[in-house]
Design a protein that fits this description.
CATH architecture: Sandwich
Number of strands: 12
Shape: globular
CATH topology: lipopolysaccharide transport protein A fold
Distance between the termini: 98 Å
Number of domains: 1
Helix content: 10-25%
Number of helices: 1
CATH superfamily: Lipopolysaccharide (LPS) transport protein A like domain
């Protein structure tokens, strides 16, 4: 019986030492950080950022991962969904994308990969988009699609606002039904 307890004690001692060694090892950070060879000042998972002006919510940003760098004033996020609000607290538009960069120095948001902007005026789809947060102007490029009702416009680049009101598209082609009364050349 003494031999059993002695062996049990040694097994528990070995397990305890192994657990201690494993828990003290350096934790690995996620691969492919946004700024190569530089650790972020903040790293968070499953985040929600609410931006307000006074008592009014400007936008709510949800993301799976976030990396923030203080010295460059940049924040990177993965799997992003943003809801923009009007001053009366109704939804102005939404934005979703695979990755985003918020540059506080330039006050821009750059969205990359499966970018979709939705408003009551339509849906914008593009692989790449820059939002000027000062003016709420959008510049989308690398092949854009604008869907309004049953009509679809395709182009190379597009400039618009968050409401998708006034739209300028380069190298445009279209599908759909156009009423002659709607043409404003």
């Amino acid at each position: 019986m003494k031999k059993f307890w002695r062996n049990s004690f040694h097994i528990w001692k070995i397990i305890s030492i192994a657990v201690l060694i494993i828990s003290c090892q350096k934790q690995e950070l996620p691969q492919n950080l946004p700024i190569e060879d530089k650790l972020p000042d903040e790293l968070a998972d499953s985040i929600r950022v609410v931006t307000t002006t006074g008592k009014t919510v400007d936008y709510v940003l949800d993301a799976v991962h976030m990396y923030k760098y203080y010295d460059t004033k940049q924040t990177f996020a993965d799997t992003v969904f943003v809801t923009f609000y009007n001053p009366d607290e109704t939804v102005k538009s939404t934005l979703e994308c695979n990755k985003a960069e918020v540059n506080d120095a330039e006050n821009t948001l750059t969205a990359v990969g499966n970018v979709v902007v939705k408003s009551e005026n339509g849906i914008l789809k593009a692989p790449y988009m820059i939002l000027n947060r000062n003016t709420n102007q959008i510049f989308a490029s690398r092949g854009v699609i604008l869907i309004r009702g049953e009509n679809t416009l395709y182009g190379e680049e597009m400039e618009t606002d968050l409401n998708l009101d006034r739209v300028e598209i380069t190298k445009v082609s279209a599908e759909g039904k156009l009423d002659e009364e709607e043409i404003d050349w």
